[in-house]
Amino acid sequence: MFRTVLKLVAVLTFVSMIGAVAFAQQNAPGSDQKISAGTAVPGGAAVAPTASADNGAAAADVGKPLKAMPVTLRELSPWSMFLSADIVVKAVMIGLAFASLVTWTIFIAKMLELSLVRRRLGAALGKIADSRSLAEAQFALGASGTVLSSLLAAAMREARLSAGISSDAGVKERAASSFAEIVRAEARRIRLGMGLLATIGATSPFVGLFGTVWGIMNSFIGISKSQTTNLAVVAPGIAEALLATAFGLVAAIPAVIIYNHFARVTKGYLELVGRSQGAAGRLLSRDLDRTHVGSLAPSKSRAAE
């Protein structure tokens, strides 16, 4: 971003220098003075008058004021500059406008999604705060459709598949592996679209700069063809080219800000997911301990007899 601004400043400085040189050449003292007949020159000689009709007509026109060439003023509104821009610059502007539309679409969609899932997951954690077993927690949640429901279901499934196995460490390790897969899948789902925001924020300034370079190159070609450095002739083409960079910045700056905002919000949501994983693990551990206590009670009663 900083390099782009430096390049824009360099381009504007170069254009200003061209305009200053042209203005100095047009208004230089003595550039419009003409030597008339009978006028002494620095060498001491005098210009001899001639009797031709052409010279007489020229002498008669000396006292008349010169007519300035009219310069057609062009409207420099953003829409008129877009319409008069080169086809490549137009394509760049349209692409950047589409990228900006995608950015704001992702912003609205992700805001609604993150607000909903955070509220639902926080409410689900509150519901199972006093649950003593996996079955009780599932009953309290009902059909919530949150990631916590998936974690509890994975813990119940592992406990059922591991029935008859006395190693609690193995059951907890397999359940932790299932939890990790669910958490990774949820992280990928919640980050969907953020990669596109990062791409737009990183590349849009350079795409706009490409359109600017292309437009300025065409403007310089037009200057060489028209053989004039009048700023009124050069400025519209330069302004049209710089509009592409403005489009790039308009697309990039919101994308970077929105990406950073969602990175913070997503981190907070994933912390809630980590809390849900810990809650499911604790409930599974309680159920395993109760199973062993229940199996040890009959053996103790038999031993007492």
In percent terms, what proportion of residues is strand? under 5%
Number of strands: 0
Global shape:
rod-shaped
N→C terminal distance: 84 Å
Q: What is the H/E order?
A: HHHHHHHHH
Count of helix runs: 9
Mean pLDDT: 74
Please identify the structural class as seen in this structure.
mainly alpha
Low-confidence stretches: 1-73
Largest sheet: none
Notable features of this structure?
305 residues; mainly alpha; 9 helices; disordered N terminus
At a glance:
The protein is mainly α and 305 residues long. The protein has nine helices and no strands.
Topology:
Blueprint: H1 2-26, H2 53-60, H3 78-83, H4 87-127, H5 134-141, H6 147-161, H7 168-190, H8 194-226, H9 231-304
Helix pairs in contact: 1-9, 4-8, 4-9, 5-6, 6-7, 6-9, 7-9, 8-9
Report on the structure:
This protein is mainly α and 305 residues long. The protein has nine helices and no strands. It has helices at residues 2-26, 53-60, 78-83, 87-127, 134-141, 147-161, 168-190, 194-226, 231-304. The N and C termini lie far apart (84 Å). Residues 1-73 have low confidence and may be disordered.
